[in-house]
Amino acid sequence: MAVLLAAAVAEAGLLRDDPNAMDGWQGTRRFTASDSAHTLEVDVDFAVYAPGDFGGGYDPSGATEYLYAYEILNTVNSDSVEVSSFTVGLETASQAGNMGTDGGPPGVPGGVSPAFYGITGSSAVWSFLFDQIGYGEDSVTLIYTSPFAPQWLTASVHDGGLSDKQSLPSPMPEPATVALLMVGGVGMVLLRRRR
To answer: What is the CB neighbour count within 10 angstroms for residue 25?
Structure first.
């Protein structure tokens, strides 16, 4: 009975139903790809929390920044390949920090932890190279923080030579920051023209 309950909780996903998450910034995206021999079909639950609202446990920003959380659920298709990596696009590498994990969802044992993670170029990457997420498994909660509120950007799930992209929340610099960068760029161009 307890095993069935745990499986039902894992299948339902908790991030998409968390009342602490920001309105409009939680849910599930299905990632699907196939070729003649393999299928990739997994769900990614996601939620964004305003500063101080993450009730899951570990907030590496000390509750001072937005917290972005994702969980990979390989419970959709028993023929699905194992997941080896998950990537979330960023406008710039400096938008996100404090990457990490927060264990599995409450009440569900385990969860596959990434072998390593980090910011590479303009992406946040979690790699499950040595312990991939097989059918019937889920990842631990994958997190990072940012001083910036969310926007929709491309994320991808990979393995078995297959990959799919969907839109997931990612930080967006405030309009004032973008405007200041643009003004600075125009100033540099004008300065060069004068010389």
So the answer is: 19
pTM: 0.81
Examine the pLDDT at 126 and tell me if it is beyond 70.
yes
Asked which of 61-70, 138-147, 171-180 is least confident by mean pLDDT, the reply is: 171-180
Q: Which of the pair, 175 or 68, is modelled with greater confidence?
A: 68
Structure tokens belonging to residue 121: 């170029």
In this structure, what token pair is assigned to residue 39?
Answer: 């299928």
CATH number of 2-194: 2.60.40
Q: Write down the domain spans for the chain.
A: 2-194
- Please say whether the beta carbons of 44 and 73 come within 8 A: yes
- Residue indicated by tokens 């994702």: 70
Contact 133, 142 (CB under 8 A): no
Q: How far from the centroid of its chain's Cα atoms is residue 86's Cα?
A: 7
Q: How confident is the model at residue 187, as a pLDDT? A: 54
Query: Which structure tokens are listed for 118?
Result: 């980090």
The Cα-based distances of 5 to 12, 13, 32, 105 in angstroms read: 11, 12, 27, 13
